[in-house]
Structure formats: C-alpha cells, structure tokens
Design goal:
The chain has 82 residues and is of the alpha+beta class. It has helices at 18-24, 51-57, 64-71; strands at 6-8, 11-13, 30-35, 38-43. The strands form two sheets. It has a two-stranded antiparallel sheet. Strands 3-4 form a two-stranded antiparallel sheet.
Length: 82
Amino acid sequence: MEVKLVKIGNSKGVRLPKAMLIQTGMTERIEIEARGHNIILKPVKEPRSGWEASFAKGGCDLTEEDHAWLDADLVTSESDSC
C-alpha cells in the first residue's frame, strides 16, 4: 500500500488505515525503530500482558523443568543466616 507523507508542524507523518491498525494490534502507543532505510512500527507490549490468562490456566502450560524448580526444596547455608 502506498501513502503520502503529510506535514505535521516541522515534521512529517503518515495516516495508517484503521483496519491495518486493528490487524497489527496497534492502539494508542507504538514503538518506532529505524533499520537502515526502513522504519519499523510495532505495537507496544504492556508489562505483564497475558499474565492473567496464564494464571487462570493454573500452571497447565508449565514444562517439567518449571515444575521441578517449583517443587524443589529451599536450601540455605549457614553463611546465609544473620
């Protein structure tokens, strides 16, 4: 898709179609990055996004290694005491 650059004050910008924004998950904030002669736009990932869904699963998506770490005994050495 080709779009024109539009003047915005001392800068220039582009208008992005709503359907494209929805398709890519972009909302109010985006990340912008320059790579060579390309400009990359990415949706901002909110901290802890998806955690609620993971907690709702109750750890069903944990690997065997994850379970081993969670089930391991806590060991402290005498040097750890105050």
